Amino acid sequence: MSTSNQFNRWPACGGEAADLIRKLDADATPLGPQDQWPKALRNVIDLILPSSAEIVVLWGPDYLAFYNDAHARSLGDKHPGTMGLPVRLTAPEMWPEVAEGFESVRLGGETVSGRDVPFTIKRGAEVEQPCFDFSWSPVREEDGHIGGVLCVIAETTGRMRASQALADSEQTARERGEQLQMAQAAGGIGVFSLDIESDMLSASSEFCRIFGIPVCEVCPCAMVGRLRLDRHDRMSIRARLVEGMIPLDVEYPIRRANDGTVRWISRRGELVRDSAGKPVLMRGVVQDITARKQDQATLRQSEARFRVLARAMPDHVWTAAADGRIDWVSESMCTYLGLGAAELLGDGWRRTMHPEDLPRATREWNQALATRTAYENESRLRRHDGTWRWHLARIQPVEGSDALHTSVRWVGINTDIEDQKATQHRLAQSVAERTRDRDRLWQLSADIMLMADLRGRIVAVNPAWQALLGWSEAQLLGRPFLRLLHPGDVAPAVAELRRLRAGRTHSHIEHSRIENRVRHLDGSYRALSWTAVPDARLLHAVGRDVTALRESESRLRQSQKMDAIGQLTGGIAHDFNNLLQGITGPIELMRRRVALGRTEGLERYMDAAAQSARRAASLIQRLLAFSRRQTLDPKPMNVNELIDSMGELLHRTLGEQVRLRITPDAATGAAFGDAAQLESAILNLAINARDAMPHGGELRIGTSAVLLDEADAKRLDLAPGRYCTISVKDTGTGMSPEVLAKAFDPFFTTKPIGQGTGLGLSMVYGFAQQSRGLVQIQSQPDVGTRVTLYLPRANAGDPAAVANPPGAAPVPEGQGEVVLVVEDDPAVRLLVLDVLDGLGYRTLYVHDGPSALPILRSTACIDLLVSDVGLPGLNGRQVAEIARELRPELPVVFMTGYARHAKTRAEFLAPGMQMIAKPFEIDEFARIVQQALRGAPTPTRAA
User: Fold this and answer.
1) Do 474 and 532 fall within a single domain?
2) Residue 304's domain is classified under what CATH number?
3) Distance between CA 714 and CA 720 in Å, rounded?
């Protein structure tokens, strides 16, 4: 692009950064087309682009970055992709370090600055931590609102490294007492040591590279001195020392020996003296500062252009020399003040400032001059019409240079903020009014309020404390709040206090909500629901008395519990009375027929009584399953094989109108649970699904494996880990939300009377819970129902198998073995003794545990102990343990209707022990007895 054409578009200056801004697409930033950008933003961009100092303006709440060419060199690989984009996206590694400062400037109108501050920046492949001097100040729009942040930056990493190198050099010299030996320091720093007596120079390889001389350990000082272009070092070192002319810290130009190029050198040094005070050694570091000198020259060239641009700015611009005396003011400032430029130059500005503000402004200005730091001041200036108006002056130091000495110039911008001041005054009045309202709320609120320090010690309370809890303010101030809590509520309160302390510095911390019991002055407790929030120093909390609400909820829960118990007992009474009638009725009829000598047709009464007894046993089993009190036999089981083995049974159960689809997942693996109970659960779910599809439909049974992480497991109230899932999905009538909420309640059923007990889903629920799993229901009316059962997955090394039901086999008989029977129920005891006698066993019997001990201690031969679990005095497990102490090899068979502590067989049974649940089949009992005896090699006698 030609020079004449590049200024036809905004920004009207050259350079890569200006070209990038001109090429920004309207959709590239939220600002839209450039002609619609805020005027203040365009003006400040015009101001920063020609500058050789690193300057960035960050605009709007997204902090869109616009910068000049000087800053582009510091961005590394990020440039040019960062122009016009939010800082949090282009520099995420640095955003946490700068976000709070940017917010203070943009929202609070503050100025944030620092010197030699390290920041985390990724400018290439690696993350760095360079150091910077910086000043962040607000950029105001025409209406006075702060539109962005002006960032003036200077990287000081080299300076910091040079200082460190010099310190390291001094430490080495003190410790070793010999010539400075130092490796090349970081980033272009050369190290030297000059022997003043011999004029011989010892230099590092980096020093030699900077001067373009061959690398050598020692060389004549004159070899390097001839390269200087100024006159100060043309005399010998010794002569200049005598005359006190040697500068230790100096910047000078040289012509490199190897290529003849002119470079600027910065030297920092010190003298080492002997005991008489005579200089014997000069040592220090040198650095190539040509790039900085060139930047300073560019800055001087841009000052004239800046003055032209300043005339078009809405604010009033001026510049000052290093001593703070104004040497140029913009025309807009002269017009505003009604004075000529000559009247304002030097210290003429003082005549325009309000007498009350002048001492403070002078003091702060002198401090800025002494420290060479950016400066802001608010003061009143007299306008041309004689009125006093508030102004904000923002003054920035800018480095310049002459041939040998660094100087500082000052650039200032004055902004009329009278309207903003008036707005702030109105806001302060509004805040004062809101404060009075808050104080009235504090005094009159029926809720108790408190402020506490971050350790939980009370610093303020409102009067509601005494009205509600009886404590006066004097009794509470300085007291730890935790000492007022019920002991059972202290631990949760301590945890919440730690969370609030940890989150007090984050603006996104949510209010804490916790409930606990607080002690009344009379020793009773009140339930309070707290809302608390921290700030930098204190915790603020409001507590509402919910004692009456909690007592009402407790009464409601008790009422609901009694309703549930009533429903449960009513359901049990209804079903059990029917089953008892089915048993007692046939027995009564058989007794009458036998008394009359009529024995024909007794089989049907026997079958009816037996069927009712089996239904009663099934009812009890389901109740135990729902209450999670049944005795399980959990083992690894192949879920897919188990469901496949149930295929024929399921087809017969479902009938022809229901299509069965089994879709196993090969990755499901083995679950850990009771195979028989799982079969029963699946069969119950299939029957429920069939009844929900009276006109036919489809039933799908699928399996899968899932891995629950911490979050998912917490949501499902399960332990994290791997699970096998079995899902049963139908296309039936579905359930309404009201029915779905009661689906697991015992004896709840939507089926007609006589077609269901309402215990099927209750049994599945109890089995899943007792197996450390879960069951879920998803249902929608007229769409269908899906029930998913979660069971823990077995360990990879455990063998998985599905036990096939035994086929018909002859009942095993005994061969005269001696069996000791311990049973407290006479009817059961009579039955067991008759069965054992009929099978060819010899029997001994007692009615309780203590009566069995003398027999066990005797020398009588006993081959097997058969004992009920629930015995008076000593229970069956205790009797078995005593028997094993006396007869270590004695096999044991337990009979149980319900064993409270035997939730799983593996937990209850020791080796050589068997268990059979009442009521049991005679053939099953015979097989269990035979299995127990088969494992016992010889009859046992008391030891």
Assistant:
1) yes
2) 3.30.450.20
3) 8
Same domain, yes or no: 578 and 723:
no
Same domain, 393 and 472: no
H/E stretch holding 349:
none
| Listed residues 739, 758, 792: the one ending a domain | 792
In a domain, 329, yes or no: yes
pLDDT digits (tens, 9 = 90+) for 354-384: 999 999 999 999 998 888 888 888 999 999 9
pTM of the full structure: 0.34
Last residue of a domain, one of 519, 545, 571: 545
Q: Which residues pair with 725 in a beta bridge?
A: 704, 790
Category of 696 on φ-ψ map: left (φ > 0), alpha (ψ -120 to 50) or beta: left
Sequence letter at residue 15: G
Asked if residue 337 and residue 242 are part of one domain, the reply reads no
Q: CA 152 → CA 51, 56, 155, 217, 309, distances in Å?
A: 11, 7, 10, 42, 19
- Buried/exposed code over 412-432 (b: 16+ C-beta within 10 A; e: otherwise): bbbbbbbebbeeeeeeeeeee
The total number of residues written for the chain in this structure: 943
Q: Detail the DSSP E strand segments found in 781-815.
A: 784-792
pLDDT tens across 764-816, in order? 877 788 788 888 889 888 889 999 989 998 876 555 544 444 444 567 888 88
Containing structural domain, residue 360: 294-421
Condensed to tens digits (0 to 9), the pLDDT of residues 851-892 reads 999 999 998 899 999 998 888 888 888 899 999 999 988 999
In a domain, 804, yes or no: no
Give strand ranges (E) for 574-716: 635-638, 658-663, 670-673, 697-708
- The dihedral formed by the CA atoms of 238, 241, 243 and 245, expressed in degrees to the nearest 10: 120
In a domain, 939, yes or no: no
- 678 Cβ contact list (under 8 Å, min separation 6): 637, 639, 642, 671, 726, 767, 791
In 321-436, beta strands by DSSP E: 326-329, 375-382, 388-401, 406-416
For residue 688, what is the domain's CATH number? 3.30.565.10
Residue 941 CA to residue 886 CA, distance in Å, equals 8
Residue 806 lies in a domain: no
DSSP assigned state of 481: G
Residue pair 291/299 in contact (Cβ under 8 Å)? The answer is no
Among 195-199, 237-241, 251-255, 894-898, the range with the most confident prediction by mean pLDDT is 251-255
Backbone angles phi, psi at 853, to 5 degrees: -65, -45
Q: Are 89 and 62 in contact (CB under 8 A)?
A: no
For residues 643 and 778, state if they share a domain: yes
